[in-house]
Amino acid sequence: MFTGIIESIGVIRELKKENDNLHITVSAPITHELKIDQSVSHNGVCLTVVGINNDEYTVTAIRETLDKTNLTDWKEGDAVNLERAMKLGDRLDGHIVQGHVDQTATCTAVENANGSWYYTFEYDPALHNITIEKGSITVNGVSLTVVNSHHSSFSVAIIPYTYEHTNFKDFQIGTRVNLEFDVIGKYVSRLHALTI
User: Fold this and answer.
1) What's the pTM value of the predicted model, to 2 decimals?
2) What is the DSSP string of 111-167?
């Protein structure tokens, strides 16, 4: 379980294919605090630490994860948003985030708003995921509030701190991102669909 509050930026150092799996080695300031078997969110994808070497650690993504996320777009040198699992008793500064990506979306607009930024994302509505105005959404692991919610798109407003301390500053039109929709909203939507 995560909160969507990014702790650190990591840099992808190596991508190694093995059968249908992808081993990802990341260099990060939090590496010395990690241990084998620990869950870490990488751009919103919960992955398990399988190896640690000095300031680098390795995680493995299987085919199911690769099919549902933007991990296949990753390149060596890319920056990734990192968050360790939430500790019980900590403040929930973001919202409840599972680290289970529902689908990807494409950035369709970036607007500099004189001190903040608006990003618009479009996603495939065929998977029946929804956003609501002022609801929660996780974009690349970052807990955000939805603005301009539409059937297959939404926008988020980014403050300078978030812009500087996440990989949002690297986004441009066409960038593919990971989305995790609000877990409570998903259950409500599912229950509603069953009663119709």
Assistant:
1) 0.92
2) EE-SSSEEEEEEE-GGG-----TT-EEEETTEEEEEES--SSEEEEEE-HHHHHHSG
Residue 49's DSSP bridge partners are 59
Rounded to whole angstroms, how far apart are CA atoms 142 and 164?
A: 13
For the stretch 133-153, pLDDT in tens is: 999 999 999 999 999 999 999
Q: Express each pLDDT in 152-181 by its tens digit.
A: 999 999 999 999 999 999 999 999 999 999
- Picking from 12-26, 68-82, 94-108, which range would have the lowest pLDDT averaged per residue? 94-108
* 86 vs 195: CA distance, rounded Å: 34
Q: Are 97 and 1 in contact (CB under 8 A)?
A: yes
CA distance 150 to 11: 33
User: Residues 6 or more apart from 3 whose CB is under 8 A from it?
Assistant: 83, 86, 90, 92, 93, 94, 95, 96, 97, 143
Calpha distance 67→49 (Å, rounded) = 20
